[in-house]
Amino acid sequence: MAVSDFLAAAVQLTSTSDPETNFSAAEEQIDLAARRGAELIGLPENFAFIGEPEQRLAIAPALADQASQFLITMARRYQVVILGGGFPVPVGDGAHTWQRAQLVGRDGQILASYDKIHLFDVDLPDGSSYRESSSFTPGYTLPPVVDVPGLCRVGVSICYDVRFPELYRHLVGAGAELLMIPAAFTAFTGKDHWQVLLQARAIENTAYVLAPAQTGSDGARRFSHGHSMVIDPWGTVLADAGVSQGAAVAPVDLDHLARIRSQMPCLQHRRTTVF
Question: Mean pLDDT throughout 168-176?
């Protein structure tokens, strides 16, 4: 590959309510992706825990530290840049957590943290309801863009954020070349919306999208869609992990990105003086 190329991996997991089991499963996929040459690895939302809110709130003080330390250890051990796509961090009221994504460099330095700002409070046509706001608190700071040495400028978001295109306009306006969208997308919405939304965010922002996802059943009531993806700035799906645990791995080519942004200069054509 050229100097402007590197491999990126969107890991796909079926996480449970047992953090140690989840960390072991995640490391197995990190190891495999690193052996394939991936330098940037994303883990999905809820990689450390999926389960009942009461259990999450009870273990969050310890789990927040464990999850962050796990990411630091993995980055150093495998010499990769890694995003943990969402783990619970106590707010301090005993009743809510933030959902935090954390980007860690090869040396174990925390490059960025982001608390999910859009919470999934919906009533779906299949009869299922979700109320993340009942036990999560939304973040209140803008999602970060990090210039990762030797790779590219990475913008961070989480799951439901993907339905809010203005967030990604902010990230690209701040220089993002690759948009990370870790998720635990429901199977019901995912079958119709997941790939369409990811491709839309890639196309409208002429940016790469790396979308690690949960898949299958958590053993309780939730079924996740899977289909972790890497998508290029033209909207082409470069890799799709299907519905099994594993990873979508594909090259990120900054020369390719520059060509597409030159040929389709949508970002330059924005009428910011009008709206």
Answer: 97
